[in-house]
Design a protein that fits this description.
There is one protein chain. The protein has a two-stranded antiparallel sheet with strand order 1-8. Strands 2-3 form a two-stranded antiparallel ribbon. The model has no long low-confidence stretch (mean pLDDT about 95). The longest helix is centred in the C-terminal third of the chain and has 23 residues. It is globular, with a radius of gyration of 18 Å. It is of the alpha+beta class. It has one domain. It contains eight helices and eight strands, in the order H-E-H-H-E-E-E-E-H-E-E-E-H-H-H-H. A hairpin with a 2-residue loop joins strand 2 and strand 3. Bound molecules: iron/sulfur cluster (2 copies). One iron/sulfur cluster binds next to loops.
């Protein structure tokens, strides 16, 4: 989800790549679960997040959306996010002891936190969100170690492809203002069905298999939504 704030307000002023060291390591959180609560619908999931959740939990996208996930409008499109629940507005995957029940296959936004992504010129860099993590005295860690994702370069490429595809689709939907939103509806439905609801054949740990299927779907979506 895009935020309308300046980088200076929310970061330490640096942009980071995979091989840079950044003060993001909160030492395993040690009983803190502050950033897993009260996040509204801001933990928006990309297709890889949902692929991992469906495969590891053995549930369909529809089952997840009627449970721990919800659908909502994000940047003009309808996308899934994690549902917050209860009085404390806790993430649906947080257990009573404040631990993440899906830690091994948690979503990308959770993996990189307190880092964020800054998109420009067809690519993106990581940045450190200085007001988000409550832990003081965080230590330095290499970005690619922190994001804890196999094939980090391939992953970054995937993130870029997905982000800029969504931007294209948003622009296309915005251009539809005079047509009763028919184009926007079609795009929203196509994106949800094609990238989230249609199961991927790859096994849960097969990232390359997922990326290949995703790339094929991306190409087909661009042709279908031209
Ligand atoms: S998925 Fe896990 S890490 Fe992410 S917000 Fe929920 S409990 Fe926290
Ligand atoms: S606020 Fe920081 S220390 Fe607390 S759970 Fe989130 S990342 Fe961990």
């Amino acid at each position: 989800m895009r935020r309308q704030v300046s980088l200076e307000e929310i970061s330490d002023g640096h942009l980071y790549g995979l091989n840079d060291m950044v003060k993001a390591d909160c030492g395993g959180c040690r009983g803190c679960s502050a950033c897993c609560r009260g996040m509204g619908s801001s933990i928006v999931l990309d297709p890889l997040d949902v692929f991992r959740l469906t495969k590891n939990l053995g549930k369909t996208f529809e089952e997840l959306v009627s449970g721990p996930l919800e659908l909502g409008v994000a940047d003009g499109l309808i996308l899934p996010s994690i549902r917050m629940k209860g009085q404390g507005e806790a993430c649906s995957f947080l257990d009573n002891d404040g631990r993440c029940q899906v830690h091994a296959f948690r979503p990308g936004i959770c993996r990189i936190f307190p880092l964020g992504r800054y998109y420009e010129n067809g690519g993106f860099s990581y940045f450190l969100q200085i007001h988000e993590c409550r832990k003081e005295n965080r230590t330095k860690v290499k970005v690619k170690k922190w994001i804890d994702t196999p094939e980090p370069k391939r992953y970054d490429q995937y993130i870029c492809n997905w982000h800029y595809f969504l931007e294209e689709m948003e622009a296309k939907a915005d251009g539809d203002a005079g047509q009763d939103g028919a184009v926007r509806k079609r795009i929203c439905m196509d994106v949800l069905t094609r990238f989230y609801a249609s199961p991927y054949e790859a096994e849960g740990e097969d990232m390359e298999g997922f990326f290949q299927e995703f790339d094929e779907r991306l190409k087909a979506a661009r042709e279908a939504l031209r």
